[in-house]
Amino acid sequence: MTSRQRTSTVEAAPGSPRGVLAPTLVPRRLLVAEVWLVFALSLGASGLRALIHLLADLTNGTPLTRQTALLNGSLAPGRPWLDLALQLVDLAAGLVPVALVAYLLIRSGESLRTLGVDTTEPRRDVLRGMAIAAVIGGAGLAFYLITHALGVDLTVVPEDLPAVWWRIPVLLLSAAQNAILEEVLVAGYLLHRLRQLGWGDNRALVLSAALRGSYHLYQGLGGFAGNFVMGLVFGRLYQRWGRVTPLIVAHTLMDAVAFIGYALLAGHVSWLPTPSA
After folding, report:
1. CA 224 and chain centroid, separation
2. Could you report the per-residue pLDDT of 31-49, keeping only the tens digit for each?
3. DSSP of the chain
4. In the predicted structure, residue 256 carries a pLDDT above the cut 60
5. What's this model's pTM, rounded to 2 decimal places?
Protein backbone atom coordinates (compact mmCIF):
# COMPACT_ATOMS: atom_id res chain seq x y z
CA MET A 1 0.00 0.00 0.00
CA THR A 2 1.40 3.37 -1.01
CA SER A 3 1.50 6.32 1.38
CA ARG A 4 -1.11 8.06 -0.76
CA GLN A 5 -3.48 5.16 -0.24
CA ARG A 6 -2.68 4.86 3.44
CA THR A 7 -3.16 8.34 4.92
CA SER A 8 -4.63 11.78 4.40
CA THR A 9 -3.49 14.97 6.10
CA VAL A 10 -5.96 16.05 8.77
CA GLU A 11 -5.85 19.75 9.60
CA ALA A 12 -7.07 21.45 12.74
CA ALA A 13 -10.22 23.56 13.01
CA PRO A 14 -10.86 26.42 10.55
CA GLY A 15 -9.80 28.98 13.14
CA SER A 16 -6.33 27.43 13.42
CA PRO A 17 -3.35 28.13 11.16
CA ARG A 18 -3.22 26.00 8.02
CA GLY A 19 -0.77 23.14 8.14
CA VAL A 20 -1.39 22.33 11.81
CA LEU A 21 -2.04 18.59 11.99
CA ALA A 22 -4.43 16.70 14.20
CA PRO A 23 -2.96 14.00 16.44
CA THR A 24 -4.17 11.17 14.17
CA LEU A 25 -3.77 10.76 10.41
CA VAL A 26 -6.98 9.39 8.89
CA PRO A 27 -7.16 7.58 5.55
CA ARG A 28 -8.74 9.88 3.00
CA ARG A 29 -11.15 7.22 1.76
CA LEU A 30 -12.42 6.75 5.32
CA LEU A 31 -13.01 10.49 5.74
CA VAL A 32 -14.99 10.57 2.51
CA ALA A 33 -17.06 7.55 3.54
CA GLU A 34 -17.54 9.04 7.01
CA VAL A 35 -19.01 12.28 5.64
CA TRP A 36 -21.35 10.43 3.29
CA LEU A 37 -22.58 8.14 6.06
CA VAL A 38 -23.10 10.92 8.61
CA PHE A 39 -25.32 12.90 6.26
CA ALA A 40 -27.05 9.86 4.79
CA LEU A 41 -28.19 9.14 8.35
CA SER A 42 -29.18 12.73 9.12
CA LEU A 43 -29.63 16.01 7.27
CA GLY A 44 -28.71 14.72 3.82
CA ALA A 45 -31.59 12.25 4.00
CA SER A 46 -33.79 15.07 5.32
CA GLY A 47 -32.88 17.13 2.26
CA LEU A 48 -33.94 14.34 -0.11
CA ARG A 49 -37.23 13.85 1.72
CA ALA A 50 -37.86 17.60 1.69
CA LEU A 51 -37.32 17.70 -2.09
CA ILE A 52 -39.82 14.88 -2.64
CA HIS A 53 -42.35 16.62 -0.38
CA LEU A 54 -41.94 19.84 -2.36
CA LEU A 55 -42.47 18.03 -5.67
CA ALA A 56 -45.63 16.50 -4.22
CA ASP A 57 -46.85 19.90 -3.05
CA LEU A 58 -46.12 21.50 -6.43
CA THR A 59 -48.04 18.84 -8.35
CA ASN A 60 -51.15 18.30 -6.20
CA GLY A 61 -53.11 21.12 -7.81
CA THR A 62 -53.29 23.34 -4.70
CA PRO A 63 -51.38 26.65 -4.49
CA LEU A 64 -48.43 26.48 -2.11
CA THR A 65 -49.76 29.28 0.08
CA ARG A 66 -52.90 27.21 0.79
CA GLN A 67 -50.78 24.30 2.01
CA THR A 68 -49.07 24.12 5.39
CA ALA A 69 -45.72 22.99 6.72
CA LEU A 70 -46.03 22.08 10.40
CA LEU A 71 -42.79 22.19 12.41
CA ASN A 72 -43.90 21.17 15.92
CA GLY A 73 -47.14 19.28 16.21
CA SER A 74 -48.82 16.87 18.59
CA LEU A 75 -47.61 13.26 18.40
CA ALA A 76 -50.50 11.84 20.43
CA PRO A 77 -53.54 14.14 20.20
CA GLY A 78 -55.71 14.11 23.29
CA ARG A 79 -53.15 12.21 25.38
CA PRO A 80 -50.82 14.90 26.79
CA TRP A 81 -48.55 12.67 28.89
CA LEU A 82 -47.98 10.21 26.05
CA ASP A 83 -47.52 13.19 23.74
CA LEU A 84 -44.84 14.62 26.05
CA ALA A 85 -43.01 11.29 26.21
CA LEU A 86 -42.95 11.02 22.41
CA GLN A 87 -41.82 14.64 22.06
CA LEU A 88 -38.87 14.05 24.40
CA VAL A 89 -37.90 10.80 22.67
CA ASP A 90 -37.97 12.54 19.27
CA LEU A 91 -35.85 15.42 20.57
CA ALA A 92 -33.28 13.05 22.04
CA ALA A 93 -33.16 10.89 18.90
CA GLY A 94 -32.57 14.01 16.82
CA LEU A 95 -29.29 14.58 18.63
CA VAL A 96 -27.86 11.12 17.94
CA PRO A 97 -26.06 12.34 14.77
CA VAL A 98 -24.29 14.94 16.93
CA ALA A 99 -23.17 12.18 19.29
CA LEU A 100 -21.96 10.22 16.26
CA VAL A 101 -19.94 13.20 15.03
CA ALA A 102 -18.45 13.64 18.51
CA TYR A 103 -17.41 9.97 18.48
CA LEU A 104 -15.91 10.18 14.99
CA LEU A 105 -13.94 13.28 15.92
CA ILE A 106 -12.54 11.50 18.96
CA ARG A 107 -11.58 8.56 16.74
CA SER A 108 -9.53 10.96 14.59
CA GLY A 109 -7.76 12.46 17.61
CA GLU A 110 -10.05 15.49 17.84
CA SER A 111 -13.23 16.44 19.71
CA LEU A 112 -16.18 18.80 19.55
CA ARG A 113 -13.82 21.43 20.97
CA THR A 114 -12.02 21.24 17.62
CA LEU A 115 -15.19 22.77 16.16
CA GLY A 116 -15.43 25.38 18.89
CA VAL A 117 -18.22 23.62 20.77
CA ASP A 118 -17.22 24.46 24.33
CA THR A 119 -17.69 27.02 27.10
CA THR A 120 -14.30 28.74 26.91
CA GLU A 121 -15.72 32.06 25.61
CA PRO A 122 -19.26 32.27 27.06
CA ARG A 123 -19.67 36.05 27.04
CA ARG A 124 -18.33 36.52 23.52
CA ASP A 125 -20.31 33.56 22.18
CA VAL A 126 -23.58 34.82 23.66
CA LEU A 127 -23.06 38.40 22.43
CA ARG A 128 -22.13 37.22 18.97
CA GLY A 129 -25.10 34.86 18.91
CA MET A 130 -27.51 37.59 19.96
CA ALA A 131 -26.19 39.95 17.29
CA ILE A 132 -26.46 37.30 14.58
CA ALA A 133 -29.98 36.37 15.67
CA ALA A 134 -31.14 39.98 15.59
CA VAL A 135 -29.88 40.55 12.05
CA ILE A 136 -30.57 37.17 10.43
CA GLY A 137 -33.82 36.57 12.32
CA GLY A 138 -35.34 39.89 11.34
CA ALA A 139 -34.24 39.57 7.72
CA GLY A 140 -35.47 35.98 7.59
CA LEU A 141 -38.96 36.90 8.80
CA ALA A 142 -39.22 39.70 6.23
CA PHE A 143 -38.01 37.36 3.48
CA TYR A 144 -40.57 34.70 4.43
CA LEU A 145 -43.44 37.22 4.40
CA ILE A 146 -42.37 38.38 0.93
CA THR A 147 -41.93 34.90 -0.57
CA HIS A 148 -45.21 33.72 0.95
CA ALA A 149 -46.98 36.71 -0.60
CA LEU A 150 -45.36 35.81 -3.94
CA GLY A 151 -46.78 32.30 -3.69
CA VAL A 152 -43.50 30.36 -3.63
CA ASP A 153 -43.73 29.21 0.00
CA LEU A 154 -46.14 27.09 1.97
CA THR A 155 -47.74 28.56 5.08
CA VAL A 156 -45.23 27.63 7.76
CA VAL A 157 -46.86 26.69 11.07
CA PRO A 158 -44.05 26.74 13.66
CA GLU A 159 -46.15 25.03 16.32
CA ASP A 160 -49.53 23.43 16.91
CA LEU A 161 -49.02 21.82 20.29
CA PRO A 162 -51.79 21.42 22.86
CA ALA A 163 -52.16 24.24 25.40
CA VAL A 164 -50.64 22.29 28.30
CA TRP A 165 -47.90 23.11 30.82
CA TRP A 166 -45.08 21.56 28.78
CA ARG A 167 -45.86 23.41 25.55
CA ILE A 168 -43.31 26.23 25.94
CA PRO A 169 -40.55 24.06 27.46
CA VAL A 170 -40.84 21.60 24.57
CA LEU A 171 -40.71 24.44 22.05
CA LEU A 172 -37.53 25.74 23.70
CA LEU A 173 -36.00 22.27 23.66
CA SER A 174 -36.96 21.91 20.01
CA ALA A 175 -35.26 25.21 19.18
CA ALA A 176 -32.08 24.11 20.96
CA GLN A 177 -32.12 20.69 19.31
CA ASN A 178 -32.50 22.18 15.83
CA ALA A 179 -29.64 24.55 16.50
CA ILE A 180 -27.24 21.97 17.91
CA LEU A 181 -27.95 19.43 15.16
CA GLU A 182 -27.71 21.83 12.23
CA GLU A 183 -24.80 23.96 13.36
CA VAL A 184 -22.60 21.12 14.60
CA LEU A 185 -23.15 19.06 11.45
CA VAL A 186 -23.55 21.60 8.64
CA ALA A 187 -21.53 24.59 9.81
CA GLY A 188 -18.85 22.86 11.89
CA TYR A 189 -18.30 19.20 11.04
CA LEU A 190 -18.90 19.41 7.29
CA LEU A 191 -16.70 22.47 6.72
CA HIS A 192 -14.02 21.02 8.99
CA ARG A 193 -13.92 17.68 7.16
CA LEU A 194 -14.05 19.29 3.71
CA ARG A 195 -11.04 21.42 4.60
CA GLN A 196 -9.23 18.27 5.71
CA LEU A 197 -10.08 16.74 2.34
CA GLY A 198 -8.47 19.65 0.56
CA TRP A 199 -11.54 21.61 -0.49
CA GLY A 200 -11.23 25.37 -0.81
CA ASP A 201 -13.23 27.42 1.68
CA ASN A 202 -15.50 28.99 -0.94
CA ARG A 203 -16.37 25.69 -2.58
CA ALA A 204 -17.05 24.06 0.77
CA LEU A 205 -19.16 27.02 1.86
CA VAL A 206 -21.47 26.75 -1.16
CA LEU A 207 -21.98 23.02 -0.56
CA SER A 208 -22.72 23.58 3.13
CA ALA A 209 -25.23 26.34 2.32
CA ALA A 210 -26.90 24.23 -0.39
CA LEU A 211 -27.28 21.35 2.06
CA ARG A 212 -28.84 23.69 4.64
CA GLY A 213 -31.27 24.96 2.05
CA SER A 214 -32.13 21.45 0.82
CA TYR A 215 -33.65 20.18 4.05
CA HIS A 216 -35.85 23.28 4.22
CA LEU A 217 -37.35 22.65 0.75
CA TYR A 218 -40.52 21.30 2.40
CA GLN A 219 -41.28 24.96 3.20
CA GLY A 220 -41.08 25.95 -0.48
CA LEU A 221 -38.58 27.58 -2.80
CA GLY A 222 -38.34 30.60 -0.53
CA GLY A 223 -37.43 28.32 2.35
CA PHE A 224 -34.56 26.94 0.31
CA ALA A 225 -33.34 30.37 -0.80
CA GLY A 226 -33.54 31.97 2.64
CA ASN A 227 -31.71 29.13 4.34
CA PHE A 228 -29.12 28.99 1.57
CA VAL A 229 -28.25 32.62 2.28
CA MET A 230 -28.27 31.92 6.03
CA GLY A 231 -25.91 29.02 5.35
CA LEU A 232 -23.50 31.28 3.51
CA VAL A 233 -23.44 33.70 6.43
CA PHE A 234 -23.18 31.08 9.17
CA GLY A 235 -20.61 29.05 7.26
CA ARG A 236 -18.38 32.05 6.63
CA LEU A 237 -18.58 33.06 10.27
CA TYR A 238 -17.51 29.57 11.27
CA GLN A 239 -14.63 29.63 8.80
CA ARG A 240 -13.55 32.97 10.22
CA TRP A 241 -14.04 32.29 13.94
CA GLY A 242 -13.57 28.52 14.09
CA ARG A 243 -16.41 28.35 16.63
CA VAL A 244 -19.82 26.71 16.35
CA THR A 245 -21.08 27.84 19.77
CA PRO A 246 -22.15 31.39 18.78
CA LEU A 247 -24.01 29.92 15.82
CA ILE A 248 -25.84 27.52 18.14
CA VAL A 249 -26.80 30.46 20.36
CA ALA A 250 -28.05 32.47 17.37
CA HIS A 251 -30.01 29.60 15.86
CA THR A 252 -31.60 28.70 19.21
CA LEU A 253 -32.72 32.28 19.75
CA MET A 254 -34.17 32.58 16.25
CA ASP A 255 -36.13 29.34 16.47
CA ALA A 256 -37.31 30.07 20.02
CA VAL A 257 -38.66 33.46 18.95
CA ALA A 258 -40.32 31.92 15.89
CA PHE A 259 -41.94 29.07 17.81
CA ILE A 260 -43.10 30.99 20.85
CA GLY A 261 -43.90 34.13 18.89
CA TYR A 262 -46.20 32.14 16.63
CA ALA A 263 -47.87 30.51 19.64
CA LEU A 264 -48.62 33.96 21.07
CA LEU A 265 -49.43 35.88 17.88
CA ALA A 266 -51.12 33.44 15.49
CA GLY A 267 -54.68 34.57 14.86
CA HIS A 268 -54.14 37.87 16.69
CA VAL A 269 -52.19 39.84 14.07
CA SER A 270 -53.11 40.23 10.41
CA TRP A 271 -49.61 40.16 8.95
CA LEU A 272 -48.69 36.64 10.15
CA PRO A 273 -49.78 33.92 7.68
CA THR A 274 -51.86 31.16 9.25
CA PRO A 275 -53.69 28.18 7.77
CA SER A 276 -57.02 30.00 8.13
CA ALA A 277 -55.76 33.15 6.40
Report:
1. 12
2. 999 999 999 999 999 999 9
3. --HHHH-B--B--TTSPTTPBPSS-B-HHHHHHHHHHHHHTTHHHHHHHHHHHHHHHHTSSS-GGGSEEESSB-SSTT-HHHHHHHHHHHHHHTTHHHHHHHHHHHHTT--GGGGT-SSSSHHHHHHHHHHHHHHHHHHHHHHHHHHHHHT-B-EEE--B--SSTTHHHHHHHHHHHHHHHHIIIIIIIHHHHHHHTT--HHHHHHHHHHHHHHTTGGGBHHHHHHHHHHHHHHHHHHHHH--SHHHHHHHHHHHHHHHHHHHHHTTT-TTS--TT-
4. yes
5. 0.90
